[in-house]
Specification:
The complex is a heterotrimer. Chain B has helices at about 20-45, 65-70, 70-105, 110-120, 125-135, 140-155, 170-195, 200-205, 210-220, 225-240, 245-250, 260-270, 275-300; strands at about 50, 55-60. By secondary structure, chain B is mainly α. In chain B, a hairpin with a 2-residue loop joins strand 1 and strand 2 (about 55-60). Helices cover about 45% and strands about 15% of the residues of chain C. The chains are: A mainly alpha, B mainly alpha, C alpha/beta. The interface between A and C is large, with 48 and 49 residues.
């Protein structure tokens, strides 16, 4: 990674040491909650409540119990289906619209785009209840479409991609059009390949947002078979008990895939942010 | 919202792209019309109606809004939210910038640090909030740590009740939010810093500018568009804070950490006052809109674009 | 050129069609697991909604099976949600107005709130037609399920709060076990001996762990009140000296380190957890804890709550109720089920035998279903408290949930946190309560 393009002069050894100390301090703060989560997920609730951290208490039992008590694999499956569908389709749909907003010249383009932007700041509670009623009327209650379709239309994604697409020289399109390429071909074969990093950024954003979403899946699903992981996590918090051990085990399970994807995709993530309009440049 | 619409060439409508343009935006526009525009219109209608579990009961005019203005709990939630904005936004910008500047140096391990700082961002907030409830318990690890630090310094220590006292509950929410979101700010800042041309530093260095002067007069102005973007982004986020107080403190004690969006949720689903909830959502929207306009207006004074 | 563009548009349409079909393609998958094997058409299927942990759900399942064995013509379909989500989701179902998804019979609290929304069926006609016996309920209990004088639900259980005490800890501290007529003074004397503090004066073992929500007991025992009228209130009564003293008694227990502050209790995992781990010698709680303590093999018993000198025994008469949706399309079957649930030998008996509840019906409480030889030994203490049930714990009007949830409980939380004294907090609360009542048009 060429992380130092804009960095000032090299630092002296003591300064470097001090900097590492500061960065490690921050790292500790960021990691400590994960450490606690992991430890509590590995010991029984009683041991945790008694603050008994003797090695004999540690086991993977909570994880097995988590899978026994609730159909976690089903929640898992749902979360994957929903997150992958929303991420892929939202990006395709947003990208098509962004391409038109950035590179096609049609009447009403600016007006429609402004209309989009105007809704960007609408807080989600404004649309929660009406959207539930809409889903009901479409007959989608407690189905995958209820979980997926409302998430496919993102003004933010469209805005982000449009900003990026505007940065690609229009000469590319002109040249391709000379060669007889259609707009759709330009979008798919020129613009999409050029926007790999920004798409990766967006994909990670959207994926983790959908994976962690709680309120919407809660409202539009009813059967146990349709619950996503966060909603399933809530099932642990019964009316009378606080099963910290299971909650933490469930949390670890819920976090793992997102963290893995992040670790794999982090290079594109940072590059993408640098290249896209998100950095305000 | 678009501070840098540096249009390259004058817009010219092209008839041959008319229908293509519409078709390209059609899937997006349909969903936009149904799930955003229609929903917003419905919500506005509900806010001016008497609306119960079974739906429309009658027109209410401004009654819901008037009730809201007289409701002390709404105002408490409002001031709590204001507190969240004025603490979370600057702290997050400052911490994120410090981290980013630290990571923008020629040192080893940048990738690992960055990986770690960003981890909370991808974490389920429910899980994060529950862990912080453990960490911030009166006899929890945070207080134990503070006690030993105070002990070493020889200062008497009375353990703060982070979650159970109205003096500290808001700070608990702030701490959780900072933990969760500072990594995002850091990544965006880091990207901006990496875009600052090295020649500018070299020039400043040759002129004998100190490290602080270089930061103050070269770096800060150059990344000010990023600061502006983050400022707006974080402010809107802080206005809409919900999950953090909802999961961690349930808004308590004594509504001391209740956020506006949380109160909207309670009004809609606990009190079955969809109408009041809708009215509240609209009041919130007006505030967000006004603040954003205001920021957009002030940005001329402190945001520097390269073309300037 | 023209052809290319036409093709482009064609491909675009194709992409959209693919997207749409992708969504549609997922739908049948969703329907498959939800769809029960189609039952024979001669049976009536009713949906039954309740909240609960997996363990509680197991009891509900047993009840449903027992009912279906007796009534093969009625099929029960279960709709279970965790407590945190239950109300959000059931409201969403009603809001949809779709009779196919609206539960026919539901477990609900508070009943008047939903009755006012028109989503509940008035049960008076069914009661009159079947001659169902309402006198078997504990005194005051049915009030919690009434709206405008009509019964809209049957409380399944009654929350009877008693003192659970850890015998081993009493023995170790040399404190006599509580008597059935102990007073606040007796309680304070015992609490002082049972509480253990470290060198800094920080409590390590508490005499009592009680949820903040139990405060109404102290107020009513002391002759205080929350409101002047619990159905049609005109003013807040919490500034009454007797009410203030009741709240201050609870607050002092915490301020002196005898009782765990509710926020700490919550963090420590709740009263059952601290009682079982020996962090608290007593808890004030309803009968829902019995099965857990018996399963853990604890050496404990129960006692009636202590009452102040010159005070009275009082237990809040309330409990979540079985209700029927007004949008139900199988009301007769729903009534058959509700009537069976709330009968001496029906659902009440099974829940009671399973140790899930203290029954709403006196006949079940006095039957072998409750009077077992399992601990706690002093079951009479529970009967004693139940017999003292009365209104006074909550309002029976639709806005009560909002009033208590937004104003009263949050206001008292500052007292439990030790930030203000009872008098200051209650004065503030009453100002807001009175304004709220006026704002909502009370008294009506």
């Amino acid at each position: 990674m060429t992380a130092m393009t804009g960095s000032p002069t090299r630092m002296s050894a003591p300064a470097r040491l001090g900097l590492h100390a500061l960065l490690i301090f921050f790292s500790t703060i960021m990691l400590a909650p994960f450490g606690v989560m992991l430890v509590v997920s590995l010991i029984p609730n009683s041991a945790f409540l008694a603050r008994d951290f003797s090695p004999a208490n540690f086991s993977l039992n909570n994880y097995w119990r988590t899978f026994e008590v609730v159909p976690f694999s089903r929640y898992y499956f749902n979360s994957i289906v929903v997150s992958v569908s929303v991420t892929t389709l939202q990006i395709l749909i947003s990208s098509l619209a962004a391409f038109a907003f950035a590179r096609l010249r049609f009447r009403g383009r600016e007006a429609i785009f402004l209309f989009y932007l105007a809704t960007l700041m609408i807080p989600f509670p404004v649309t929660l209840i009406p959207n539930f009623l809409i889903i009901k009327n479409l007959g989608w209650y407690d189905t995958y479409p209820a979980l997926i379709v409302p998430g496919l239309f993102s003004v933010f994604s469209t805005f982000l991609l449009r900003q990026y697409y505007r940065g690609i020289p229009l000469d590319f399109d002109e040249a391709a059009r000379m060669d007889g390429a259609s707009s759709l071909r330009i979008w798919w074969q020129i613009i999409m390949p050029l926007s790999g990093p920004v798409l990766a950024t967006l994909a990670i954003f959207v994926f983790q947002g959908v994976w962690n979403d709680f309120l919407w899946p809660l409202v539009v699903t009813t059967s146990e078979q349709m619950r996503t992981i966060p909603v399933g996590l809530a099932a642990f918090v019964g009316q009378y008990a606080t099963a910290w051990d299971l909650l933490m085990a469930g949390s670890v399970i819920a976090l793992l895939p997102v963290l893995v994807i992040y670790v794999i995709g982090q290079k594109w993530f940072v590059q993408g942010i640098a290249l896209s309009g998100i950095g305000g440049r | 919202m678009t501070p840098h619409t540096a249009s390259r060439r004058p817009f010219r409508w092209r008839p041959d792209q008319q229908w293509e343009g519409y078709l390209f935006i059609l899937p997006s526009f349909l969903g936009f019309l149904i799930f955003i525009v229609l929903a917003v219109v419905m919500s506005l209608g509900i806010s001016f109606s008497e609306w119960g579990l079974t739906g429309f009961k009658g027109f209410a005019g401004l009654t819901n809004y008037q009730q809201l203005m007289r409701d002390p709990v709404f105002w408490q939630a409002f001031w709590n939210t204001a507190f969240y904005i004025v603490t979370i936004v600057p702290l997050q910008l400052a911490l994120g910038l410090i981290m980013a500047v630290g990571l923008n140096q020629a040192i080893r391990g940048v990738t690992i640090y960055r990986l770690i700082y960003f981890m909370p961002v991808v974490t389920t907030i429910v899980a994060g909030a529950i862990v912080f409830r453990l960490l911030l318990a009166t006899n929890g690890p945070v207080n134990s740590l503070l006690a030993s630090i105070y002990g070493v310094a020889g200062i008497p220590f009375s353990a703060p009740n982070w979650l159970g006292s109205s003096d500290f509950s808001k700070w608990s929410v702030v701490i959780l939010t900072l933990w969760k979101n500072t990594g995002f700010t850091m990544v965006v800042y880091l990207a901006a810093l990496q875009g600052v041309p090295k020649e500018l530093y070299d020039a400043a260095h040759t002129d004998g500018a100190s490290a602080w002067q270089r930061f103050r007069h070269v770096t800060l102005p150059l990344i000010s568009p990023t600061t502006f973007f983050l400022f707006i982004f974080q402010m809107i986020g802080a206005f809409q804070l919900f999950s953090e107080p909802f999961v961690m403190t349930r808004g308590g004690p004594a509504n001391s950490s209740l956020s506006v969006v949380q109160y909207i949720y309670l009004a809609a689903f606990r009190d079955i006052r969809m109408d009041k909830a809708a009215a509240m959502a609209w009041v919130l929207f007006v505030f967000i809109f006004a603040f954003t306009l205001f920021q957009n207006w002030t940005q001329k004074r402190w945001v520097h674009y390269e073309s300037d | 050129m023209q052809l290319k563009r036409t093709m482009g548009i064609g491909v675009l349409v194709l992409v959209m069609a693919l997207i749409l079909s992708a969504c549609a393609g997922i739908a049948p998958q969703a329907a498959a697991p939800a769809g029960e094997p189609a039952a024979a058409s001669e049976t009536t299927t009713i949906t039954w909604a309740f909240w609960g942990s997996p363990e509680e759900a197991a009891s509900h399942k047993m009840v449903a099976d027992a009912f279906m064995a007796e009534h093969p013509e009625i099929q029960i379909e279960i709709w279970n949600q965790p407590w945190d989500d239950y109300f959000t989701k059931i409201q969403a179902l009603w809001a949809s107005g779709d009779t196919k998804v609206i539960p026919d019979v539901a477990f609900l609290w508070p009943t008047p709130r939903y009755a006012a929304e028109g989503v509940l069926e008035n049960l008076d006609p069914y009661i009159a037609a079947s001659g169902y016996n309402l006198d078997d309920y504990w005194p005051g209990l049915l009030e919690s399920a009434k709206y405008q004088g009509s019964v809209y639900g049957f409380p399944r259980d009654i929350e009877v709060n008693v003192i659970y005490y850890n015998k081993d800890m009493f023995d170790a501290a040399g404190v006599a076990y509580p008597s059935d007529d102990w007073t606040w003074d007796d309680f304070l004397a015992a609490a002082e001996k049972l509480t253990q503090k470290d060198a800094n004066g920080v409590t390590t073992v508490y005499a009592l762990a009680a949820e903040g929500g139990k405060w109404a007991k102290w107020v009513n025992q002391n002759g205080g009140a929350i409101l002047d009228d619990y159905v049609n209130p005109s003013k807040c009564m919490l500034t009454d000296p007797a009410s203030v003293a009741g709240i201050q008694f609870f607050a002092d227990l915490m301020n002196q380190g005898y009782a765990m502050r509710p926020a700490d209790l919550n963090q420590a995992g709740g009263d059952a957890a601290v009682f079982m781990s020996g962090q608290a010698a007593m808890i004030l709680q309803n009968t829902s804890r019995v099965s857990a303590f018996n399963a853990a093999g604890m050496n404990y018993d129960v006692a009636p709550a202590p009452i102040p000198a010159g005070g009275k025994r009082w237990n809040g008469a309330g409990g979540a109720a079985w209700v029927m949706s007004s949008g139900s399309d199988n009301k007769d079957a729903a009534w058959t089920f509700i009537e069976w649930l709330q009968s001496t030998n029906g659902g009440e008996k099974i829940y009671t035998e399973r140790g899930e509840i203290f029954p709403a019906l006196q006949s079940v409480a006095n039957s072998p279903a409750f009077m077992t030889d399992q601990p706690p030994a002093n079951k009479q203490a529970i009967i004693t408290e139940a017999a003292a049930s009365d209104v006074g714990g909550f309002g029976y009007f639709p806005e009560w949930g909002e009033l208590s949830g937004s104003i009263i409980d949050p206001g008292l939380e500052r007292v439990w946190a030790g930030e203000v004294d009872a008098e200051t907090a209650l004065a503030d609360i009453c100002t807001q309560v009175d304004q709220f009542l006026a704002d909502n048009g009370y008294p009506k």
